[in-house]
Amino acid sequence: MPRSRFQLGFPRQVVSCYLLFSVIAVTWLSIGVVFTVHAILATRTESECLSQLGRAAAAVEIEHLRHGDEALGRLLDRIRGDGRFSCCAVIDSSGKFIAHTDRRQMGKKAVANSGPQKRWGNVEATEYEDPNGQKLVEFRVPLIVGEESIGQLWVVLPSPDFWTTAKAAAETAPIAILTPLLLIGAGALSLRRLTLPIASVHDQLSKIGRAAASAPIETRKLASRSDIHTGWNRIVDQIARAKQEGGQQDISQRVAKAIRRHQHDTSKQVLESLADGLAVTDAEGKITFANRAITALLGEFQEEGPLNGCSLSEYLSNRIDNPDALDVFMEGGTEKPTSTEINRTSGERMRSLRIARRPLGKGNAGHVWSLRDVTQQKLAETTRNQFIDAATHELRTPLANIKAYAETLAIMDDVDVEQQKEFCNTINQEATRLARFVDDLLSVSSMEIGSLAIHRQSVDLQRFFGEVVEKVQPLLRKKSQKFDVHLSEKLGKAYLDKDKFSAMLVNLLGNASKYTPEKGTVKLQAKLTAGVLSAVVEDTGVGISEEELPKVFEKFFRSSDPRVQAEPGTGLGLALAREIVRLHGGELSLTSQLDEGTQFTVTLPLQQEARL
Q1: Distance, CA of 406 to CA of 409 (rounded, Å)
Q2: Helix/strand/coil for 556
Q3: What is 12-165's CATH superfamily?
Q4: DSSP 3-state assignment of 362?
Q5: Domains in the chain: boundaries
Q6: pTM score, whole prediction
Q7: Which of 436, 483, 491, 431 shows the shortest CA–CA distance to 464?
Q8: Between these two residues, 471 and 270, which has the higher pLDDT value?
């Protein structure tokens, strides 16, 4: 019978399916490259804009303070060129443009655009389309000189369009797509070469399958070009000898028996390869089958077969920490599925295991038991609960204080000006605390997805450390702590992210002060040796126990020491600090002794300013 166009030979079927799925995968990869590049461009553009806005607002405030409104035009032109903005302007308190890169707009009323809005701290952003259909993002930043608001800095940033995305994707496509295509082609050639020996065997088996059930099985030998051909020839010889010895019926019985034996061996191999423990018991609770994972999960490694005939309940009772948990299997009969959790201590590590039992068929024919390691799941639940507790505490306390002081200001008529200032300062401090907590959460989220980035700039290290010291000194004075600062005379300059690196050092010094008793000592040392900056923060505080040292940099971890628990905190600061040091190419290490103090060491190879 001639083949139709859909009845391809075995090698062609395999190769065709391989190529079809490969083309689908490459197409999907191409689409993913375009969308990924677009998302990266949008995120990077927005991040760079936010970084530049803070510096631009500070420059405008300083320029206004020094020279008034007349010199703002040239400054806005420079800000527009540096930030790739469409336009920049300064809006006064009445909503009019007092400075604009388009001089024709001077003195006109600023019109607010409508669209989706975002907020980062005091920065507001609105997405909209202009009359030409171009997508734009409008940013507004308040300008404050002293305690007086002078208006807003207003900038417009174009969103990445299709052609920008396509151009960036085209730069990535040759590597991301052509390389898989070459590998697919090489794989197709290799696959065809591997399947050719099977094709001749496949043709004979296909003819046997299409033949009538009563027709005799006709096989022929093949030229021995591979192990597959040699194996097929041996089968042909076995069939020929079987025909001579016992006839066709005997051959069918032997083939069926061989198939059943192969199926049994395959099923057993599958059960033995499972990561979960699996056992079967009879009506008396004796083990008739148990895979190797049962003993491995209990910290034992035994060869196949020693559990057969043993009582599973007795075996588990002698090897777990809470044998009473197995009593649930004795209650409520044996016809219902039942599960519980058991604990097993191996050395210094405790593992949580979930064991379940299901009846095997109707009546008391036996049971199927499964054993699964849920230790990581329990740790995840514990971490989640710790985070919820910490977040609840960090949010509830500032909100309660803000509400209390706000209500007091609203209902009391005889509050003098000083008290009003004190209440407002308290509300501002609590709001700042909330904002810092939210910023930490956002930073940790960015760290987990890999989007936390640094923006390097040239920094004078002597001046930089002086600013860090000024930020933390009020906290140490409040607790009457001694602050020893030792800085090398020639620290020079470094190329790093000033804001993030400063936040990291302030966090380390703040923790040192927080967990050091009153009149204790906090030290800061910095030195430059062979192009490597070393910064050491040391305290004489409560210290950290040896058991908790490996967990200090984990997110949301807080020591169980009551002295630590008494201080507010989220457990995010050290995880974020280590990530900031890592992004700079450095290392953050820790040594501590309980009740004696803690020392954090930042080691950072300095980089020279990059040339564009």
Answers
A1: 5
A2: coil
A3: PAS domain (3.30.450.20)
A4: coil
A5: 12-165, 217-266, 274-369, 379-449, 457-605
A6: 0.39
A7: 491
A8: 471
**Which residue, among 378, 383, 381, has the nearest Cα to 556 in the 3D structure?**
383
Q: According to the model, what pLDDT value does residue 535 have?
A: 92
Q: How far apart are CA 2 and CA 107, in angstroms?
A: 87
Q: Are 89 and 105 in contact (CB under 8 A)?
A: yes
The C-alpha R_g of the chain, in whole angstroms, comes to 37
Convert the pLDDT of each residue in 590-605 to its tens digit.
Answer: 999 988 899 999 999 8
Amino acid at 182: L
Strand-pair category, 277-281 with 521-529: unpaired
C-alpha to C-alpha distances, 489 to 339, 399, 526, 527, 595, nearest whole angstrom:
68, 45, 10, 8, 33
CB atoms within 10 A of CB 187: 15
Q: Return phi, psi of residue 447, to 5°.
A: -65, -40
Map tokens 């710790």 to a residue: 386
Residues facing residue 126 across a β-bridge: 117, 138
Q: How far apart are CA 150 and CA 526, in angstroms?
A: 40
Distance CA(341)–CA(326), nearest Å, equals: 9
Is residue 89 packed enough to be buried (19+ CB in 10 Å), middle (13-18) or exposed (0-12)? buried
Please enumerate in sequence order all residues whose Cβ is within 8 A of that of 118, keeping only pairs 6 or more positions apart, or say none. 124, 125, 127
- CATH fold of 274-369 reads Beta-Lactamase (3.30.450)
H/E stretch holding 339 reads strand 338-346
| pLDDT band for position 526 (cuts 50, 70, 90) | very high
What does the chain come to in residues?
612
Averaged pLDDT of the chain:
75
Q: Could you tell me which residues come within 8 angstroms of residue 570 by beta carbon, excluding any fewer than 6 positions away?
A: 390, 391, 394, 437, 440, 556
Question: How far apart are alpha carbons 234 and 544 in whole angstroms?
Answer: 71
Say if domain 457-605 classifies as CATH 3.40.640.10: no
d(CA 68, CA 58): 14
Q: Which two tokens stand for residue 148?
A: 């007086």
